Amino acid sequence: MSTGHILIVEDEGDIRELLRLCVEGGGYRTSTAGGAKEALALLQVEMPDLALLDVNLPDGDGMELCAEIRERSNIPIILVTARKGGEDIVAGLEGGANDYIVKPFDVNVVIARIRAQLRGFAYWKKTYQPYKLISGDLQIDLKSCSVTVGEKEIILSAKERQLLLFLAEHPNQVFSASLLYDRIWGLDGTSEENTVSVHIRYLRKKIESNPSSPRYIQTVRGFGYKLCWTDE
């Protein structure tokens, strides 16, 4: 059984539905959007494992959306479009896409391309992903599980450490309190929202220079929490 979350951005409803059925039939979870604005809203909630993007969108250029995703993540991006000229393909690949599928397409080819890109991305992450994450004066070592701010090592409880490391392994992705509770506490906790919010507050006091205006652990109102991470 395949695993992974695929974002499908396609303005034509029948093609979008065909891609959804095709991708879900391949064992993947999907999110769908009919335009760039809707896609960007979905990306604020969760970064997918791969994106299938139409180039011609009613509210923007798929190439611009491709560039926006590439600024946020290294996930594979496959462009799906009726444009089949060599210049268009070159522009798409040089613009950040990993692959290019021309309409009309064979659904089996789409699934094969998705699997190939996900295999390559998984290998890249396993081989090249750094074990130290550094942003500003905060450093998280994913191997030793140590956390430092400036030159000072921060003492965390077991659950605080687990929560921070989970967020660090998924930088800039938003997670609901419910999901964080399930991943960190499982059946051990008693109050989902309160347990998560209390630990988030403790973490902010320990790693933020101004906990009331956090730089790192940010609240996305109506959705949950994310670890805001940059290379600066």
From TrEMBL:
Any Pfam family matching the protein: Trans_reg_C
Transmembrane segments: none
Main location: cytoplasm
One Gene Ontology cellular component annotation held by this UniProt entry: protein-DNA complex
Positions carrying 4-aspartylphosphate: 54
Domain spans labelled Response regulatory: 5-118
Protein name in UniProt: DNA-binding response regulator
